[in-house]
Amino acid sequence: MTDDGSRVQPWAAGSWTTPPVAATDDGTDLLVTAAEGSDAWRHTSYGFVHDDAHALLGRLDGAVEVAFDVDFDQQFDQAGLMLRAGAETWLKAGVEFSDGAPQVGAVVTLGRSDWSVAPVPDWAGRRVTVRASRAGDAVTVRARADDEPFRLVRVAWFPPDAEVQAGPYCCAPTRAGLVVRFRRWATGPADTALH
């Protein structure tokens, strides 16, 4: 238990939605190798459904926080956290490499996916922490690089009665060989304020 009431989760506390090519403990870190073509998306604009991202999930009651290194630079390489209630109800948030730069963003899927991103080129090569807090009918997503202040990424509607699991995720839609170093996975009470 940390000072803010959060609890660091052991990697063994979660179950994979789709097992990665490899997942190896490296000290307190977890190195995850994503399968080529893995992704999470439903319908919108692209017309396809992918539900084979590598998400390591456990029960969520309030907030989840995942830290990882942004050490990837191929189109659509991505890592962060996922909240999942089912195949058609989920949220992923983190950093995705797109159009030549890291982008912080989120995909909310309620039958169909949407996508919002903002470029963060200065986050390349740094440790990023993504936090999602669920309260009532909303999930509030924040992110930061290293020890900078958290910035608001998204406030999204999410079904208030849904049973949700959450934890780290990654995928590699366009290539083989993506390895993500996850530094930390923690859960705790929901945030008390939006700002």
UniProtKB/TrEMBL annotation:
InterPro entries: ConA-like_dom_sf, DUF1349
Organism, as annotated: Modestobacter caceresii
The organism's place on the tree of life at top rank: Bacteria
Protein name, entry field: Regulation of enolase 1
Lineage of the species this protein comes from: Bacteria, Bacillati, Actinomycetota, Actinomycetes, Geodermatophilales
A matching Pfam family: DUF1349
